Amino acid sequence: MKIDEQLRTTYKRQRALADKLKNEVDKEILARKPSSWHYESRSKEEESFALKIEAGRVKNPDAIEDAFACVIVVPNYSEVKDAERLVIDLYGPPAYKRPESHEITKKAPSDFRFDDLRLYMKYVDQGYGPPTGLAGVIFEVQVRTFLQHAWTIATHDVVYKAENVSWRRERVAHQAKAALEQAEVTIESMAALELSAALPETSDQFTLINEIISTLKSNWERDQLPRDVRRLAEGVYALLRNIRLSDADSFRELLDVGQAKYGGRHNLNWSPYRSILQYLAEQQPDKLTQFLTNKRSNGSAFVYDSVLAEMGLNRAKAPRATVLGTA
């Protein structure tokens, strides 16, 4: 594309500032954002810069607002405000933002145009190191959810960079946007929807897993359990199901008897799973042996070698056992 020399000169000056902003802002946001958020940024390319100005979409061609722009992607709508707060903590209130309010919109209910939160920030030196020379330079920060980000990536080139315009193509893209917005609303409202009488309240499996979680928490201190107690409980549930010991009372009795045998407390040198496995080997050896040695049964269970040895088994005799050192 032929670009007028005057535009090229303006672009080079703004690109130099954009690249400096990118270096500073990338470091500052990446150092503050949670690991579960995604971040990416870019300095505007020359052709995009020229097209935007020639299309009359810029009020001040000598200082376009998105010469440097970045995007923060958060898991769901509930964290959009957190991302906005992070940016404001770094650079102060935005010079302006679009849309101006999350609560009030100018769009019709049938309108599903691009409407991610865009903050236009004035750069502020963070107070360490020499002055950057960027103070007051405006840049754009977009905040999106992962579903919004996925839609943008999937449709941007197809819709906005195609060689011709297509009503049908844009219609389909915005139908997808509407579907994703409905998914966002559903996710955001999950706690309320959980109470809906239109859905079954629970299942036998979920009831037992919740009882296992409760029993684990009552038997071990919080720091003795994994952060993801649900995953441990699901593993315990699978183990109990495999040996046909699938009721909460039997599980509680297993722990009570085991605890009593070891002086009224669980062995803290063992993980909770290791303790449960040990108690099963001691209190339900026939059921555990029957499962571990049954070549025709489905499923498997991780078993420590020492527990196998106590049961008079080895790896060859226990095909349902997953053990360390078999790779």
What would you say this structure looks like, in words?
This protein starts with a helix and ends in a 5-residue tail after the last strand. The protein has helices spanning 5-32, 46-54, 80-91, 146-160, 167-188, 190-193, 204-219, 229-242, 248-261, 272-283, 285-293, 305-310, and strands at residues 38-43, 68-74, 96-98, 117-122, 138-145, 301-302, 321-322. The chain is of the alpha/beta class and 327 residues long. The mean pLDDT is 90. Helix 7 (204-219) crosses helix 8 (229-242). Helices cover 49% and strands 10% of the residues.
Uncertain spans: none
Structural class: alpha/beta
What amount of the residues lies in strands? 5-15%
H/I helix tally: 12
The average pLDDT score comes to: 90
Q: Helix share of residues?
A: 40-55%
- The beta-strand count equals 7
Through-space gap between termini: 58 Å
Specify the biggest β-sheet: 5 strands, mixed
Pattern of helices and strands: HEHEHEEEHHHHHHHHEHE
Bulk shape: elongated
Radius of gyration, taken over Cα atoms and rounded to an integer in Å: 29 Å
Keyphrases for this structure?
327 residues, five-stranded mixed beta sheet, two-stranded parallel sheet, 7 strands, 10% strand
